[in-house]
Amino acid sequence: MDPQPQLRSSNNTTRTSLAMERTGQWIFSQDIPTDVLVEVGEANFSLHKFMLVAKSNYIRKLIIDSKETDLTRIDLSDIPGGPEIFEKAAKFCYGVNFEITVHNVAALRCAADFLEMTDAYCDANLAGRTEDFLSQVALTTLSAAVVVLKSCEDLLPLAQDLQIVSRCVEVISLRACNEANFPSRSPPNWWMEELSILDIEFVSQIIPAMKKRGAKPMVLASALVTYTERNLRDLVRDHSGSGSKSFDPDFPDHELELRAHQRELLQSIVSLLPAENAAFPVHFLCCLLRSAIFLKTSIACKNELEKRISAILEHVMVDDLLVLSFTYDGERLFDLESVRRIISGFVDKEKNMGVFNGGNFRESYSTATQKVAKTVDAYLGEIATHAELTISKFNGIAVLVPKTARKVDDDLYRAIDIYLKAHPNLDEIEREKVCSVMDPLKLSYEARLHASQNKRLPVQIVLHALYYDQLQLRSGTTTENCTTPMAAAAATKSQLQTDVSLVRENEALRAELMKMKLYITDIKKTGGSQGSSGKAGGSGKRGTFFSSMSKTLGKLNPFRHGSKDTLNIDDSAGIDITKPRRRRFSIS
């Protein structure tokens, strides 16, 4: 007659109590009372020494090496898998059948090694049974190997030492490459979802193994994108601005632990990215960089992402740059330094390519550079409405793209106008600083027409726009008479240079006339109070001023160096100059 086994369990865990009840159902020796209590965590198992010693060399050595004459208590809290796995190992010792599955085979193999239940100690022992299951069942399919590898997360480093991890990685990498080349089911990327449940430590071994087997960069990139979107869902896939709040060091401890885990995970993912930048969607890289900024990852991690985005900046859309620029709630601007470094890196790359190809970067810009210029101008227009955007930050981004890379400055003018409208308290000097990044002579007719009526612009910019239209009308016939497009372009460029020179000369003339007006006004104020001696003394000063004024006007003489140039006529030549010539200077 079999004696009833004595079971003891902790009252703190219902799970442990249930385990003890199950244990009582398979211990059969009721005629022989139990003689050892095995403690595994909070669970206690009352068992028989002779049944355990028959299969476990570890327990045999514990009993032999014990200083107690009759060892009645054994602590096996360090056994891999905990109470549930020890229960199955004990069943094996008692000859009770139980099911080995892909979920528990790794833990059973590790427990067998821990308890030294090997075939060398006893034939057909637990270690041999689990090895047979691994090789014949668990490691024959990708899905099963993934489940086994997932179960190894809590069994390290023993699972690594027993080569369970390496064998799983080998099987998964082989099967994944086969699925990538010859899909066996739909959807074709089903295996990528399977890999998404694994810890990043195992993925870091699978991706290089697949690369060694010849997996294409696009395949590896797709697997990493799927993995990232599943494991950093709240950071990468939440583009609505309603997800994570800004990082706050005063968050609760559990929140800080989560962010620390996400930081390590993101840095590991970035280290696995294939070298081929074109393999990744641009928007995905931008989302990764925003997450890196939010999580405050290492400088190396952020620099790597910035370098990758910079290399393919011509494919970046405005929305992608906006992803980098705003917090997840969409209310505040991030530090714009990342955007600055990305644009600057792209421009430097284009310059180096231009020099390498024997071209002149200043005279000829690639299509990619012109496309980036339009993207940057549109991006400035989007962020210009935010009050925290200073003039230095706005101009700092605008000047990164060379001025000559823009065929027209209409998009930049639009961004400037939005900025001035959103910042109405700027004074004249500050508005001129904002407008300094734009060339008014490169605006289209429609933009110049708008600028001439725009009260937000500084007066100088409005005058430039108006004067340029007048010059265009005046020189239009000359340009139309050119027979070839190249000749027309050369004539336009020459006329533009002449017009710009005239603008500068007119500004100089305006300044001299203003000085003359102020001087005359000063004479009128002080003339009545001064005596004749004062007048005599002042005549020499007036003569000096008018002489200087005459020289300045002479320099601005439109007939200078021509047949009607009077600047170099000698007074002793005897020419009749009693009737002065009428001269007209254009002042705008």
Automatic annotation (TrEMBL):
Signal peptide annotation: none
Similarity comment: family membership: Belongs to the NPH3 family.
PROSITE patterns xrefs: BTB, NPH3
Database matches in InterPro entries: BTB/POZ_dom (IPR000210), NPH3/RPT2-like (IPR043454), NPH3_dom (IPR027356), SKP1/BTB/POZ_sf (IPR011333)
Protein name, entry field: Root phototropism protein 2
Keywords: Phosphoprotein, Ubl conjugation pathway
UniProt xrefs under SUPFAM superfamilies: POZ domain
All residue ranges annotated as the BTB domain in the record: 34-102
Residue ranges of every copy of the NPH3 domain listed in the record: 189-472
Pathway in which this enzyme or protein is active: Protein modification; protein ubiquitination
PANTHER family hit by this protein: OS12G0117600 PROTEIN
